[in-house]
TrEMBL record:
Name of the protein in its database record: F-box domain-containing protein
InterPro entries: LRR_dom_sf
Recorded superkingdom: Eukaryota
Upper classification of the organism: Eukaryota, Fungi, Dikarya, Basidiomycota, Agaricomycotina
Length: 546
């Protein structure tokens, strides 16, 4: 064997190339041709056996897989009558030490494991968990670095048998957590000191008697030293502690749902942060309700030096957009590092619509020259002109996504011809959501020197549109790769309706863009004189129903 195969790094690269990338999806792991090839390599070549086995088993992320394939004859399938309808592995007999030989051999290779739910078509019953945990010594997987646990599938109390000191990432999902689970988390904190990523994604509904649990969970979380935290449990003390934590990089605060008919106090309602807060943070996501004035107060205390992502999903009215966006800009001391901004104004049923927002309100954001994604949800109308679109294109040349939906129809829209600025200056723009006035369009207006081939989706919302032919011709000339045009109708009072039927004219425009592209591709083939031309549009033409 060539001496290069004695280098562990080279063998690892070869074995990893043999695997089919599966991510977290185990449903095709056993039947994958590449997986079987790697297993054959491990059986036939002694020199690469250890490396091949390690690569083979590091993709196994469900305990049912290793239990079934290393302990044959120990299990029977039991079909549980529930919503999941997934057959469960249940012990067929008493499990003895001899049954665990292969399991113990392969267990140290496992790095990442899902408990309680995955894509694998079989699960492990609670009796199966009991059989393994009562027979094997803890930690059952000694080198486990990542645990994903679904409390809807199996009680969190079993995690104590699987968590090892090597654990660095813990994701918990499910319906809810109890005070018993709180003690389990404290136990894991003491045993697994290297955990730097904690994700609690429970869809939590707080009853009157459970709201006091929030502070207890928040106090427990405050004892962890984390790089990444996602949690529905937040308190004033925890928020202030995180604000000055030099190691925290990602913070995601999810919403806490109160029991119907009750109200719930949230710490963001009275939040006062220390100065220079979140200076080391790179990503901040707030899914909980926060009043606009409290958000302004919070941003005034922040000094983002590394932040590249800011997402706030429930800003309670009334929102003054220029003030909010100015506060975002003022809070960032290194605007060239900022990449993504998502702000959503919460709906206020029964309340009058807020006044329209003018395009000048976006002025503070023009300082973020490296912005790649901008998504602003307005409850009122957004009035934009061609100059505003031109300024956006000039300020954000790296833009890949631009979505500006508004719940109320604007009185002022940029003309369709204004999109030429985005086509000329934003070559990476792939997703656009912007209302325009396409009622008077001519192909004569289409620029002859601008073709933007990245745009694939355009959400026109309630944009007025004239005859489909000229509009389709214009878009085909400027955005030849445009695949999707999505529109929405309007309800009687003029407000946009999210589930309204699409505008049939815009549907025709989408079809015509593809048709014109196919015709142009065919013409290019006729004049190519041997050059290679992509003819995908030509084949699409036959399937278009005009």
């Amino acid at each position: 064997m060539h001496r290069c195969f004695h280098i562990p790094e080279v063998l690892t690269l070869i074995c990893e190339a043999c695997r089919e990338p599966t991510g977290d999806n185990d449903s095709t792991w056993v039947t994958s041709e590449n997986t079987q090839s790697l297993a054959a390599l491990a059986r036939t070549c002694k020199e690469v056996y250890a490396t091949a086995i390690r690569c083979l088993w590091q993709d196994v992320t469900d305990i049912a897989i290793i239990a079934e394939y290393t302990m044959p004859g120990c299990w029977m399938l039991d079909l549980v009558d529930d919503e999941s309808n997934i057959p469960l592995l249940t012990p067929a007999r008493h499990i003895v030490e001899a049954d665990l030989t292969r399991f113990k051999f392969y267990a140290p290779f496992i790095r990442k494991m899902t408990f309680g739910g995955s894509d694998w078509p079989k699960g492990l019953s609670e009796d199966g968990y009991l059989a393994l945990t009562m027979t094997l010594n803890a930690p059952i997987f000694p080198n486990l670095t990542h645990i994903s646990w679904d409390t809807a599938g199996i009680s969190l109390s079993y995690i104590q048998y699987f968590a090892s000191p090597s654990l660095v990432s813990l994701h918990i999902a499910g319906d809810s957590l109890s005070f018993g689970d709180l003690h389990v988390l404290r136990c894991i904190r003491q045993r697994c000191r290297n955990v730097s990523e904690l994700d609690i994604g429970c869809s939590y509904i707080l009853t009157r008697s459970e709201q006091h649990m929030v502070a207890s969970f928040a106090d427990t979380i405050s004892t962890w030293s984390l790089h990444s935290l996602k949690t529905p449990f937040m308190s004033l003390n925890l928020m202030r502690q995180l604000a000055v934590d030099p190691t925290l990089r990602t913070l995601h605060i999810t919403n806490q749902t109160p029991w119907p008919g009750t109200s719930m106090y949230h710490p963001l309602e009275s939040l006062v942060l220390p100065a220079q807060a979140f200076s080391a943070l790179t990503s901040l996501v707030i899914g909980a309700d926060i009043r606009a004035d409290r958000l302004l107060t919070m941003l005034e205390s922040c000094s983002f030096g590394c932040l590249h992502t800011l997402e706030i999903y429930q800003i309670l009215p009334r929102v003054t957009w220029r003030s909010i966006l100015a506060a975002v800009r003022g809070a960032h001391s290194a605007p060239s590092t900022f990449r993504r901004l998502r702000l959503k104004e919460a709906a206020s049923p029964g309340q009058p619509r807020p006044p329209p927002t003018q395009g000048a309100a976006l002025e503070p954001l023009y300082g973020f020259s490296a912005l790649e994604e901008l998504h602003l949800d307005f409850e009122g109308a957004l009035h934009l002109g061609e100059d505003d679109v031109s300024r956006m294109a000039q300020s954000w040349p790296q833009l890949r996504l631009l979505l500006l939906p508004a719940r109320a129809p604007p009185q002022e829209r940029p003309p369709l011809h204004a999109l030429r600025h985005l086509a000329a200056r934003c070559p990476r723009l792939r997703t656009l959501g912007l209302e325009v006035d396409a009622s008077d369009v001519s192909l004569v207006h289409a620029p002859t020197d601008v073709r933007q081939t990245a745009l694939a989706s355009w959400y026109v919302y309630a944009s007025p549109v004239g005859p489909a032919g000229p509009v389709g011709a214009y878009l085909s000339a400027v955005f030849p790769e445009l695949e999707k045009i999505a529109s929405a109708g309007q309800v009687a009072d003029g407000d946009l309706e999210e589930e309204a039927p699409e505008n049939p004219t815009w549907r025709k425009v989408q079809v015509l863009v593809k048709a014109f592209g196919a015709i142009r591709a065919h013409e290019s083939l006729c004049t190519a004189k041997g050059r290679v031309i992509r003819a995908g549009h030509i084949m699409e033409l036959d399937g278009i129903d005009f």
